[in-house]
Amino acid sequence: MAGDDRHAPRVRGVTLSDEVSHAITKAAILRPGSDQRAFHPDPRPVTLTAAQIGAVQRAHRAFLALREGGAPPYSVRLDFLVDPASDPGFLLLEVEAVAPVKFFALHPDRPAVFARAVVRLIEGQAF
Fold first, then answer.
1. Sequence-ordered list of residues with C-beta below 8 angstroms from that of 32, at least 6 positions apart, any chain
2. φ, ψ at 125 (rounded to 5°)
3. What percentage of the chain exceeds 70 in pLDDT?
4. 84 CB-near residues (< 8 Å, 6+ apart)
5. Which pTM does this prediction carry?
6. How many Cα neighbours within 13 Å face the side chain of 22?
7. Cα distances (angstroms) measured from residue 85 to each of 41, 44, 45, 91, 96
């Protein structure tokens, strides 16, 4: 990606088990010509293409393959830089596996799905 990637917009995909639950896009924290900073500035729901969902799932599986032992985290947020020159249009920046912000307020139907999955997990059922 050309230029300073600190200014690039982000896409964040949230997984529940092996599935992509939902995604958001947001502005970069550092913006050219601005000294203002915000935690997750201008978040908005976004619909991912099939290719982007596949990229999120591949990144999620690769992350799980790196882990040694123990149960995998149930929910992971994968953060990407938008890069129109790449296929599928973004590049993995980081994986948030410990208490990731899930942006449920932007996807009002997802907290109930998450809660039901947690109950199934507690009861020892498959996702």
1. 7
2. -95, 160
3. 83
4. none
5. 0.73
6. 18
7. 24, 22, 22, 10, 25
